[in-house]
Amino acid sequence: MSISELLQTTTLPEKYRHLSVEEMERQIRAIKDALGDELFIPGHHYQKDEVIQFADVAGDSLQLAQLCEKNTKAKHIVFCGVHFMAETADMLTTDHQAVYLPDMRAGCSMADMADIYQTEAAWPVLQQIFGDTILPLTYVNSTAAIKAFVGKNGGACVTSSNAKKMVAWAFTQKKRIFFLPDQHLGRNTAFDLGIPLDAMAVWNPQTNSLETDQDPENIRVILWKGHCSVHEGFSVAQIEHVRKTHPTMRVIVHPECSREVVAASDDAGSTKYIIDQIEAAPANTQWAIGTEMNLVNRLIAEHPDKKIISLNPYMCPCLTMNRIDLAHLLWSLDSIVAGTPQNQITVDAKTTQDAKLALTRMLERA
Fold first, then answer.
1. Are residues 118 and 200 both part of a single domain?
2. Burial, 124: exposed, middle or buried (Cβ in 10 Å; 0-12, 13-18, 19+)?
3. What CATH code is carried by the domain that includes residue 247?
4. pLDDT at 232
């Protein structure tokens, strides 16, 4: 496909740029009603309110992919999330189902930091340094190609909810783990399991080298040099400011935050964990939350009986996630009705086979 052809299939048609919010909402409702069970719209927690209102279910990335797998009635799955999430949904659904991403620009900077070619270049170097003592693990926030690499090398996927369980399992298989692509989740999880920080090293894919001053024999965890651009925006200074201005406020953050931020907070956990903690908290409790702004704002609106703020009130929402808006959602649905669906996400059979090994190893232990 030429660049001009690619742009034609991924660029929002002009007519959608001039519709009012009310008109777009009306048309989306009408299409949902017309398609009924043939249409399924999963929406990630970080989506805008204008989009999440039309989601059939809201959840985190793996939870949504699993719900797609269970929904065998839907022919069309319009995934309101980012690219790697739609890939996972495609791999877990049947051949008669199609998965679409309303805006192809909705990617994930963290997932993009683990390039398959860099990963395949890193593996033999790490084998030379450490021998056959490493098991690869990948956060589900990774591309299908990375999941496939991990699967065919005996490893598994992890989520922020089950990372401790999966890392503990990995250490029963091999002496060392190679954790992709988020160094912070890997470091926080291993530390919580009793692995000292000086037993961890960072793999730099740009230099194809290990960053450590330790004897390689003492290294237990190799962390890919990647991160979430949203969660790396939280700092210890912000926590200190909350401590001074709101002395009774609890600070809860996502484990994609840096080790220093997690250590300085009162609690840390997955998106679901954060939501559950806020929902279970007594009235009049106070919370500073270190995660994506759309979710924080939604929690503020849903819990008026509690004082909730963002740990970083100046943070922008996840920019790539927010590329999906009403106009792109309507375009995606219109194109399905017209029989010319746009932005279908497909993963080839071999990649799917290997990636599902990594997913299955995780789900068997969930």
1. yes
2. exposed
3. 3.40.50.10800
4. 86
